[in-house]
Amino acid sequence: MNASDLQSLLFYALAILTALCAVGVVVTQNIVRAAAWLLFALGGTAGVFFMLGADFVGATQLIVYVGGTLVLVVFGVMLTAQGPFVNLRTSAAEWAVSLVVGLLLYAVLAVATLGGTWTKQERTPEQQVAMTDSADSNNSILIGHAFMGQKIGPNATGYLLPFEIVSVHLLVVLIGAAYLARAKRRRGVANVDR
Amino acid sequence: MLIADIGLPPVGLNHYLLLGALLFVCGVLCMATKRNGIGVLMGVELVLNGANVNFVALASYNPAFQLEGQIFALFVIVLAAAEAAVALAIVLNFYNNHATVDVDTAEELKG
Amino acid sequence: MSSLFDFSNHPGLYFVWATLLPLASFAFLLVASGVRAYVRRYQEADGPVTPPRWPAYVATGAIAGAFVLSLVGAIHFLGDHASGHGPEAHAADDKHDNHDKEAEKGHEEHADRWAGHLTWASVTPGSPGEMGRSLTLGYHIDHLNVVMFLMVTFIATLIHVFSMGYMADELQPMVEDHQVHDDHGHFRRRGRFGRFFLFLSLFCFSMLNLILADNLFQIFLSWELVGICSFLLIGFYYERRSASTAANKAFITNRVGDAGFILGLLICWTYFGTLNFEDIFKQVRAPAADAHGKSLALAGHIVRGNDLPADDGDAKFRIAQADGASVLLFPVEGHVHAADLAPFKKDGTTPNEVTLARDRGRDEFGNMPYWVLVVAGLGIFLGCVGKSAQFPLHVWLPDAMEGPTPVSALIHAATMVAAGVYLVGRCYPLFTPDVLLVIAYTGGITLFVAATIALVMTDIKKVLAYSTVSQLGYMMLALGVGGWVAGLFHLVTHAFFKALLFLGSGSVIYGCHHEQEMTKMGGLYPKMKITALTMLAGVLAIAGIPFFSGWYSKDAILAQALGYVMVNRQHALLFVLPLLTAGITTFYMFRMWFMTFTGDPRDAHVHEHAHESPPLMTVPLVVLAVFSVAVAWGWPVWDAEKSHLEGNIHHAQPAAVLAEFGLTADEPIGVGEVGRERHLAHEYHSLAGLMATGLVALAIVFASAVYWKRFRVLDPAETKENFPAAHAFLANKWYFDELYSALLVRPALVVAGWMRGFDTHVIDGAVNGLGRVGVLVSRLDGLIDARIVDGLVNVIADAFYALGGRLRGVQTGYLRSYILFLALAAVGVFLVVAYFVSRAAAGP
């Protein structure tokens, strides 16, 4: 079994898993189940990232997405999933329309993807110099350097400023989310207390 | 090896892109069909994942932007987390005020 | 007027200062009252403020000072006159053929001493020879002024003193007016003590200025000033409706007269070029002597004639004395030739002619239409009719009794109403015989009508008011029939006893707590003896009992009237009316006195509270009583023609009087048959006096029979019932007010209604029509604007609105449908872009 075949096998398995899970998210009417399907879909995506050699991204996908975001979603589901809201059904007509639109969209995207010719670009020698190690080896170090402001190429810049902005953004979002979702004291209850 | 003889077609960039497109379309459909607010949020996550797949795939197939694609994917992931937090807070707030998570009831801005 | 203090060279200034003193008092009180009104705001925070007493002292001091100055001036004047500087001495010199330069000089000097003026406004500067038109303020003192000054200042002083007592009510911080009601019962107001004396001072100044004046303009100013004072004082209690109405009535009635006055003034200004008395009279009346000192046959006459058409050169004037349509105006300066002025030339057949200058200078002849001169005289007389309350403008004076009683005494009995008589006397040379006849008849009608009304009046002040009107009628009548001296003589004596009577009635009213109805009085003699006795003196004086002042003057009037009637038999009424009225006067005056002071009290309440007035009020009464008795005395007392006062007034008599009504006894009778009245008056003096005295005695007896308890023969109430129509006719004052209401007021209102109708329908209609047209045009414009312009805009807006309404449906509000649209749009955009890209790729 050559590496290429193994890669293909892995890819198809992962792709099918991910696609099925994604379809499951769409199809299921139960929100709890949808969350479970999503979990697997995201995990599958992480696997795709690994296959593409983006180890750090895949790891981050697993940690942040599957471990953080999805937990958040699950908490939301748990907080709101009471009897009637677990299964909110959509009418068949809507389904039909959505399906048509979805297929149309997919067709367009597929045509665009398959109709294009993708040529593999080679790195210029200077770029190659910057990339001291080979591309398919572990590039986490490079990413870390880039985030710390190291220039990747002669025309490129480091990513320190976006990194900082995103950090502050996260902080603000967390405070804002906490503020928005905080437990509100109901006026009527307060009156009774008094 | 048995497996080696399966004769699977080799995996190219197109495959990854088609997967990303599928994820994207699934996300859109999810947003379009789910009446539950959190379901809509899940759709958004799927859309973002589809986009991420494209970023990373294109990055790995074009060494000129290998790092940039991954860094963008990272930013997307982080921002998706932030988005999820805010969206969930909004959904909870909506639930507090309307005692439901059905987005169809949020139609005050109807023309 | 070189200096206002040069008394030794210009003793006339004494009178000027006597006039200015009350003005100073007025100005001072005015400023002081302004200051007080300002300060009082702060004082009243601590409660009501009592009005101060000192304004009375200031005003009284001023008028008393004016009296003293007048007295000093009078002594100087009489002294001057006695030493031969007087104008009469000059006239006597003129009679001699040899013209005496010394007398001329003396005359000039005299004129300079006793007259002066300053030019106030000059209309035409002109050369000295021309008739300069200028308005002057000046004074000219003769015997009449002097007597009037003494009379006015003396009576005014006494009335000021009396007022201090009478107006004491006004010294309270808040005065309650029992005749005015408001929401809280009786009306309450601040005391007006100071204001009363402020007005009195202004009045005194105006009145003295009127007497002082040497020109019509100054007199007119003062005339209006006394009118406004009268208005202010009649309306002193202006919260009372009757008082304010009476004030308006007095003022408006006087306006009628003043319209005539102004007309006369304008005519004088136009034709004589001056308003100065001397200058006017010099032009109207022929001079006494010609250039050679020869007496003129026409001396003192108005010379009438006809204008001859001016063919070439100067116009001519042909003298035709009796029926000329034009009047010759004499030069103000220089002398005339006797030959020019004789009715005929020396041959006795050809009428004489005088050359008239085109641009008349001061030493040239002029002319004016005779009827204009008549109109001027009638106009000025109309002013006097209004002021002196003569028929038909007499209606205001009885109503004027709404003012405080001292005011009635001073203004509406003694001084202001006499101003009309005074002015007639002053302007005498201006009046043609026709005007004089009108004056005589006006006086005759007035005196009779007023006396009959006075017979039935029950308000004590109304009786006196009608009595005043009646007595003023006597004066007018006297002036009209040539009794210039008699009329003005009566003016002075009447001022004293009428002031006395009014003050007496004031004392009675004060003692009876402001009760004026005689029907509530009676039997007051024991309670107020001084008032009763002094009033009796006044009653006897007005009745004309021998040796009282009224006797002298009234006899003089009756004698003059008799003399006139003897010559002009067709005017017999002019003697019969005053004679009868003498009896009527006596009757109603005694009726008043008896009703007030004798008999049983008719109202126990009034009688019980009646009391004698304080000395501040009784002392003026006593003083006035003494003067009422003795002011006209001369030596011998029993000779009615030897009154000293009359003699003094006689000195001021203008030559015109003699010219119109004949000469005095010691001078030859003048031209033809006219002008024997004076002579006859002298002849029949005792006859007229006897007739009058007899009638008076009869009236006294009759009055006693009716009103004195002891002789009660006739019951007045019964009489009243027997002649109800006559009584109603008299009690309603001959229905004059009703007549005027029907003849003047109502037509005026009707015409005003028409005018209003014209105004509202025609003028307003036209204006409204125009307005309506404007509105129509605007509406059309608005229509274009609304339909076409706005329509266009609205169509566009409506189109967009409809579009918006349609597109609205797109915004479903459903999140999920938005997503679907988004996806569709993405597909659409993709396809479009793909199409263009493929074309671009296929293109080259």
Most extensive chain-chain interface: A-B, 90 and 79 residues
Sheet with the most strands of chain C? 5 strands, antiparallel
For the terminal residues of chain B, how far apart are their CA atoms? 65 Å
Using the alpha-carbon principal axes, give the shape of chain C: extended
Number of helices of chain C: 30
Q: What oligomeric state do these chains adopt?
A: heterotrimer
Count every beta strand of chain B, where a strand is a DSSP E run of 2 or more residues. Answer: 0
Tell me roughly what share of residues is in helical segments of chain B.
over 70%
Residue windows where pLDDT falls under 50 for at least 5 positions of chain B: none
Rg of Cα set of chain C: 39 Å
Radius of gyration of chain B: 19 Å
Distance between the termini of chain C: 125 Å
Question: Helical stretch count of chain B?
Answer: 3
Describe the structure.
The complex is a heterotrimer of chains A (194), B (111) and C (844). Chain A has helices spanning 3-27, 31-51, 55-80, 83-86, 92-115, 125-130, 140-147, 160-180, 187-193. With 194 residues, chain A is mainly α. The termini of chain A are far apart. Chain B is 71% helix and 0% strand. Chain B has helices at residues 13-33, 37-61, 66-98. In chain B, α1 (13-33) runs antiparallel to α2 (37-61) and α2 (37-61) runs antiparallel to α3 (66-98). Chain C is mainly α. In chain C, the strands form three sheets. Chain C has a five-stranded antiparallel β-sheet. In chain C, a hairpin with a 7-residue loop joins β5 and β6 (316-319). Chains in contact: A-B, A-C, B-C. Chains A and B meet through α1, α2, α3, α5 and α7 of A and α1, α2 and α3 of B.
